[in-house]
Amino acid sequence: MMQMKGVLAIVTNEVLTLNNLDALFNPKSIAIIGASPDLKKIGGRPLSYLQNYGYKGDVYPINPKYDEINGLTCYHDILSVENSVDVAIIALPSSAVIENLEKCAKQGVKSVVIFSAGFGEIGHEGELEQQKIVQIAKQYGIRVLGPNCLGLFNVQLGFYGTFSTIIEDEKPLDSKIGFVSQSGAFGSHVFTLARQQNIGFSYFIATGNEADVDVADCIEYLATDPNTNVIACYIEGVKDGNKLINAFKLAKENNKPVIALKVGTTEVGMKAAMSHTGSIVGSDAVFDTVFSQSGVYRATTIDEFLDVTYVASQLPPPKGNRAAVFTISGGVGIMLADQLAERGFTLPETPDDVKEKLKVILPIAGTQNPIDTTAQISYIPTLLEDFIDAVLSSGSYDTAIIFLGFAGLKHDSIKERIETLRRMKDKFPHIPQITVTINSPQSSLAFREAEVPVIQDPTRAVIALRAMKDFGEFNSGNFEEVVPNMNADLTGLSGDLTEYTSKKFLQQFDLPITKEQLVKTEQEAIEIIKDFQYPLVLKGMSPQILHKTDKGLVSLNITSEEQVIEEFNKLKAIIEETPNATFEGILIQEMIKGDFTEMFVGSKRDPIFGQMVIVGLGGIYIEVLKDISMRKAPVSIEQAKEMIEELSASQVLQAYRGKKARDIDALSKLISDFSKVIATVEDDILEADLNPVMVFDEGHGVKIADGLITLKN
């Protein structure tokens, strides 16, 4: 389970706005272009929903075939509507979309929802038509949802701008959960499962092809919406990574948990997502990093997605990791104890005075946490409340799980149980409590109406509770780092840089590199070594030979002038004998002595999210073990230290068996400083490897012994 600590830095100067989406999400007037009296048609459904589910604004059906539909005046086209229109729904064949979008622009319509398919999702010709939509939207300042989208609805307003059949027979339930999905079909599936569990939504938004309004715009809007306190999103890919990060940041600032279900974790899945949405699909590991660094909880199944979203809408994060378990089954209590412990919770022993109280209430009860109420709660009406009250009043616990077996199927007693649980939730609002029981549809609804969180499976309850703990830990962090105003001179540099050129670039920022000097002749070498102490390292520099060791271009333990001359000529000859290789010079370098640990610090420019800083064990181990930690650059020193701690190999930097601890503070500062450098030249550096970085004993610093940087050509 991911840990969510620190706040992701924002690397754009763009100012966050509401993106003029209020007319789209909260319209006072709606036009339906292609409206129909046939409720089974795409143009008939939204009109039916608006009329049947209580929309109070103005509705303008548009269809030249009719003068009246469902008691409303029907207009021949949008230009015939004299009043202001906040949103126009286009339910027409793709061939008629551009013409009607242009009419909307002339009429002054503020936003448009395009149901029609046949655009970017079908290939090049469709993409060209979709670009026309983008151009019109930009030219006239119209916000467009779609094309090829299922639409959206705002439950509290009664606005249903969708042709989906998921709400055909029943008005959606209201809640504080905003749901945005890049797939209409997937969104409908999740919506239906949620409704079966009596979970509602404040908004449901399917973004379709995202010609204009995308998932980040929707998250940003929901982050400021007073009727939404939790944001759930289904993501296949995004075009603008920084925009998405900014939306996550705004949600965090407004204390609104974000739960994401991101698909495309495998190469096959990524290709499928690309063909479906037309979005750029980045490395899944990068998405994982961005989610974690932004405080977004990433669910892996629909059950987890709904559980965490639902619990987050009902409960606060726990203030600590001390859990109490109340159970009618000793076996389930043990299972819950194991699973809670595996996910970072502790189960403190029940205080002695509380044990005495519990024994008075029920002498046969198991008073050790997990607390076994036994089946007697079925016969002693006050037993459950007395137990929970006594335990949580002790101040020894931060959260609780109450396992009631199949109590939800006992309609004669479940109402009383729910009342007990509601009172305990009200009495201890700072202690999140999740009930576990098998439910009937009636008891499930009763739990929801009482706002008592219930999950039918113990393991799913533990996972949801761990997610709440993650939200709490993330909100307690305050390590935001911004890109500094740094000047980087890249004059004359492009493509693959040699170690010498790479480190010369890094010297601009006072990063700690080894003492070294590039020479091109024997005589220069003889003069330069007077400023060095033996032993030395000699390295052959050629832009065409970056992996020096593979070509024998590294000579170690040079201890005399004669050896310097001999190795100089040998290394130069190797370069000159290599086809197409140019001789940049021979790098004379101090040979690092003493005890140290080799680490890797590097970066990779992701096409969506930009510069990612990477840390791992150095030398060949970074490739062999693949034990790395990654963040979006830049990072603070605190975040850099967290990166180091996340490594499985981090223990080699600690003191053990007589070995001194390494200088983790100096390494953390280097990681942070380097991350600021790469963030400063966001679009110019494609990749950078500082390997190895020598980490000395605590208090003795670090040195970059080798490094390679690849710039854009």
Describe the structure.
This protein is 35% helix and 19% strand. With 713 residues, it is α/β, with parallel strands linked by helices. Helix 2 links the parallel strand 1 and strand 2. Helix 10 (302-314) crosses helix 16, helix 12 packs antiparallel against helix 13 and helix 21 crosses helix 22 (664-680).
Summarize the structure.
The chain is α/β, with parallel strands linked by helices.
> Average pLDDT, to the nearest integer?
92
- What is the distance, rounded to the nearest whole angstrom, between the alpha carbons of the first and last residues? 40 Å
Helix content: 25-40%
Total helices: the number is 22
With strands numbered from the N-terminus, the spatial order across the biggest sheet is 9-8-11-10-12-13-14
Which regions are unreliable across 5 or more consecutive residues at pLDDT < 50? 1-18, 268-281
Largest sheet: 7 strands, mixed
Per DSSP E runs of 2 or more residues, the count of β-strands stands at: 29
- Which structural class best describes the helix and strand composition? alpha/beta
Multimeric state: single chain
How much strand content do the residues show?
15-25%
Gyration radius over CA:
31 Å
How would you describe the shape?
flat
